[in-house]
Write a structure and sequence with these properties.
Layout: H1 2-12, H2 32-51, H3 84-105, H4 109-132
Helix pairs in contact: 1-2, 1-3, 3-4
Length: 133
């Protein structure tokens, strides 16, 4: 989810070029609430797109109630038997980099509090997985 929020946040502040809107969010600038809803929706879409191929034996029916079909990938985001150690480190590095990028980009104390809580949660999860296995 952090990755999706970062990508959507980066799209929100892209300047316009050649008369074309530079961001997906440029049409809803009149309302901060509409921007927040759109950023959250985009982050959910990014989460779904990146979560879908990372389940081996713990998948869920993605198209329920239309179908009970469960996609089984060859890689897992957590199981070390299916490259989970590599995927989780890549996710941790990506999230850490995006947190730093957003920290440098936004000066608001509210944004920075959210970023600190995201960094803390990623650190706690990394500590848990490092001590659990």
């Amino acid at each position: 989810m952090c990755v999706g929020l970062a990508l959507a946040g980066a799209l929100a502040d892209t300047p316009a070029r050649d008369g074309l809107p530079g961001s997906l969010l440029s049409y809803s600038r009149s309302s901060a609430v509409a921007d927040a809803i759109l950023v959250l929706a985009l982050s959910a879409i990014v989460h779904i797109a990146t979560d879908f191929p990372l389940h081996v034996l713990d998948g869920h029916p993605a198209f329920w109630p239309v179908s009970e079909w469960i996609f089984q990938s060859g890689i897992s985001y957590w199981d070390p038997h299916y490259y989970g150690n590599v995927i989780s480190l890549a996710e941790l590095a990506l999230a850490g980099g995006l947190i730093v990028l957003l920290w440098l980009r936004f000066r608001s104390w509210m944004v920075r509090c959210v970023l600190l809580s995201a960094a803390f949660s990623y650190g706690a999860i990394a500590y848990h997985w490092a001590t659990a296995f």
